[in-house]
Amino acid sequence: MTCKLSRILPPALAAVCLLFIHEPAAAQFPGMPRINRDSLRALTLEDHAQMLGQLGLTQLRPGRDPNTPDSPQQPNYDEFKANPYLYYPDPLKTFKGKRVRNARQWFRRRRPELVRAFEDEVYGRIPEDVPAVRWEVVKEENVMMEDVPCIRRELAGVADNSACPEIEVRLQAEVTWPEGAGKDLPVIMEFGYALGNMNFTFPGAPKTKSWQQQVVERGWAAAVITTGSIQADGGYGLREGIIGLTNRGQYRKPTDWGVLRAWAWGASRLLDYFETEPQFDATKVAVEGVSRNGKAALVTLAFDQRFASALVASSGAGGAAPWRRFCGESLENLTSPDEYHWMAGSFLKYGADPLTPDDLPIDQHELSSSRSAPRGPS
Fold it and tell me: How far apart are CA 113 and CA 125, in angstroms?
């Protein structure tokens, strides 16, 4: 049974929610009626409780709370207290304790077991029957990026929903490149919230060029894929989007993929498109993101070795920050109803006693290792 947002919200407002709304950020959208925010929250709590039930969990430890001055869960920022963990997993030692000494051993032994561990314990597995995507050109137009004449192509990636027609997934993306730049262009791909040449600056800050502008001035292509068109950024949407379509509207199982893995899957599908177009060099595509999109960029690079590089900022917990560290956001924040949807359901067990971050068989420095050390077999 599916849970359509359109049954709760007007279609236009539902679209905004799918693109932007994440419960801690709801205050950023004061125009949304309280009843709609409460409806999204109720769906999230229902899904979170359902996953706890599958895992046999009744209570999770609370996460860090920087917004309540007298909270006992205040985050720590004192480096002298930040490292209570004595053990960190060794990226170059297998789970059986064997040392990895060359690239051959890495690709044959260590990297596959790291990938499996991150899938099973942190980010989830992509199902084998995930629907295929067919890319369509929505429109192509000539635009000026300041003084650089460019071509902008808007794309739609339509997922095959023949197995579950009531759920539609239409990936939104665009790519912009300089006129006359030739073929085989390198591409910078961003996880974004909307299409267009977005250039946010804080009030009073000096005006700077958008990242797209800087890219096209180098003669490269700038691409954006909107995360909300792949999968909603909230537990309320897990029975919709590509996760819901693949599950035919049912709840996730504990090792099913979370939202970060779904966003990474979407980036991989856009890379598929670039592989079919001689305009672009699909071997020179870097993925970029900030904050939760930075987490997604790291996950993308770790699981899809076709990507050449990643540009990541402020990825924090669930990204580059280690779990075995008492500083800032904690593992328990990511097992809460506010952020659990990013991860596999199985990850929630580490937020419940008796397990702690120290029980994880891997840590995030090994995600970095799996993405970049080394990048190809030899």
Answer: 13
User: What is the pTM (predicted TM-score) of this model?
Assistant: 0.89
In sequence order, what are the residues at sequence separation of 6 or more whose Cβ sits closer than 8 angstroms to the Cβ of residue 204? Answer: none
* Domain spans of the chain, in order of start: 1-378
Bridging pattern class, strands 185-192 and 221-226: parallel
**Mean pLDDT, residues 296-305:** 97
Encode pLDDT of 62-109 as tens digits.
Answer: 999 999 989 999 999 999 999 999 899 999 999 999 999 999 999 999
More confident residue, 114 or 14: 114
Residue 36, pLDDT score: 79
Q: Inform me whether the pLDDT recorded for 372 exceeds 80.
A: no
* 8 Å CB contact between 162 and 188: no
pLDDT, residue 41, reads 93
Contacts of 254 (CB under 8 A, 6+ apart): 51, 54, 55, 344, 345, 346
Candidate CATH numbers 1.10.10, 3.40.50, 2.60.120, 1.10.150; the one for domain 1-378: 3.40.50
- Answer whether the bond into residue 354 is a cis peptide, omega within 30°: yes
318: left (phi over 0), alpha (psi -120 to 50) or beta: left
Nearest to 191 by CA among 279, 272, 300, 274: 300
CA proximity to 226, closest of 23, 5, 9, 16:
16
